[in-house]
Structures are given as C-alpha cells and as structure tokens.
DNA sequence: AACCAATCCAACCGCCAGATT
DNA sequence: GAATCTGGCGGTTGGATTGGT
C-alpha cells in the first residue's frame, strides 16, 4: 500500500489568493521552509491544498521572481530556446533567471506566438509557413545537427533542473529564514553544476563564467559558502557546456559551421522578428557580411541571410565567441 | 457612459515519473 | 512488485483589465 491520501479536497478553498493567505504562506516558509507541501497548508493555517500552495509560492510569492515586462534579451532567449526545446517551459525558464515557467508560457502564448504567426512563421517549427524545399542546400544535415543538439541540451537541462531542485530543497530546508532574496537562482545551480563538471579546472571555469554574454560576480553574500551569480542574458549555463571535454558538442558545432561555410543555411528565422527587422538583422553582423558576399544579393539571398542570422543567434547562446548584438 | 471585444495572467486541471509504503 | 502518493510540468480556463466604438 502507498501513503495516505495527499489531501482531503473537501472544504479546501480555491481561486485567487488573498493578502492574508499570502502572508500566512510567506511567514510559514520564512520560518520553517518548505519540506512537505502536503502538510504545509495545515501547519500554516491555510485552507488550501498543498498543490495550490506550491503553485502560489513558485509562481508568485518566491522572493527571487522578477515581474513586469520582458526585455528584448529575454524575448530573444525565449524564442531561441523555444526553437531548440519546444514547449519545455521549465527548461526554458532555467535560462531566464527570476522568470517562472508559467510567466514565460503566458508571454509566449499571448505575445511571441502571435507575433510569429503575424510574420508568417510557424510558431511550432519556427519555419516560414510557405517555405520551399531547400534540402539541396544541406538543410537536412543541419536540421539533424540542430535536432541532435536539442537532444543534448534537453538531457543537460534535465540534469540542471535536478541539481537546482536539490539545491533549493537543501537551501530552504537548512536555512529557511536566512535570506529574503535571491536565495536559489542559478547561483546554487551553477555552483553545483560547475563543481560536478569542472572539478580541478577552476581557472577554466572562471574563464567560462566571465564569458562576454554573461555577468558573473562573486561577492559578499549572506551565506558565506555561496557565490552571487547574476545572469545577464541567458547563456551562462549554455556556455558551461562548451568545455574542452565536451568533444561531441564541439565537434557538432564545428560540423555545423563547416556545413554552413559550404553554403548551407537552415530553416527558421524567428530571430528576425524581434523588435522589428533592424534588431534581428543586427545579430552577428560580422558573419553576415560574409554570407552577403557569397550569396550575391537579391531577394533570395536576403532570405538565406535572415535564416543565417537566426541560426547565428542560436549558436551565440551556445558559443560565447560568436558575437550577439542587441 | 455603456457596451463589447480583445488581451492578460493567476490559477486550476490532468497527466506523468519517481518516490514511498 | 503493486498500489498509491508527491511534486513537477504543460495545457487550459475564466475573471479582471484594457482598448475601441
């Protein structure tokens, strides 16, 4: 037999949370942390089910949540990661510190998806809806590579998420009231991840953390053992995967680049729709020049160029050496 | 001012994988 | 090993808000 039922649903309140309920939940977690959501509501004096409490906490009350409008960089990150990962909102959220998966999902459904559709881009495949077959240009191979990368990234994100969860639990279970802000963002996630993947390679790790697309600082924290890592942009975690030991990954990227140099471009150009064409076109301007020269201009070349911009922007997330301009 | 439609977003629902008994 | 619980995830809903007429 299993455990006793999670909660007696009879008589439990549903719907919007009141300020009083919020305060009760906050006060309880501040004082005791969250060990078991099942028993929490009763202990906290709430007539809600544990699931509702967890949702309220993770999506609204958590102190490390950033609210308000998404900036351009965040929009771009969402679109790029969605192209790679699909509707895996929690995975996408791991690259957007302080944003919840629910918020990202909502923003995608209400803003970004519509914008893509408006531009004639399929929000599921990130391809133009009237795209003509371009396999002769090596697209199939690139698509396979991207797909392969997405699989690799998915597996890595799962590991990351697991580590993050462990860190969160440890943090709140051991020091429930030791902080009021930024308790367990990518700080714990990254330190755990890097320590597991980069042991004995501190210099290199530091180098990676100081990549051009992320801002990482180790400064005074309330918890002496923790380093404060503030992510600007989304690439820090992705940067970590391009380590020397990630032979497959590097070879895949190189393979892709080689194919690209041979004239191949891949599908999708949602990067272009960000804040109008001008911003999209600014991605990887340096590389685009080369493409322009090769392609010889004209409407068709613009299409290829645009696609390349899109891919460049994705690979900029992966490869910090590739410039990404905003 | 009143009505309606569109949009936003917090919260719920149902499913799943892993944990627990 | 089966039954059941738990936490997490993605999809969906519906009330609130905003904008247009």
UniProtKB/TrEMBL annotation:
Principal subcellular localisation of the protein: nucleus
TM spans (from-to): none
GO cellular component, one term: nucleus
Location(s), subcellular: Nucleus
Gene3D superfamilies: Homeodomain-like
Domain Myb-like: 9-61, 62-112
Keyword set includes Kinase: no
Gene Ontology process terms (BP): cell morphogenesis; regulation of cutin biosynthetic process
Pfam families reported for this sequence: Myb_DNA-binding
Domain of life: Eukaryota
Domain HTH myb-type per the UniProt entry, residue ranges: 9-61, 62-116
Entry annotated with the keyword Isomerase: no
Keyword entries, A-Z: Developmental protein, DNA-binding, Nucleus, Repeat, Transcription, Transcription regulation
Gene Ontology MF terms in the entry: DNA binding
Name of the molecule in the record: Uncharacterized protein
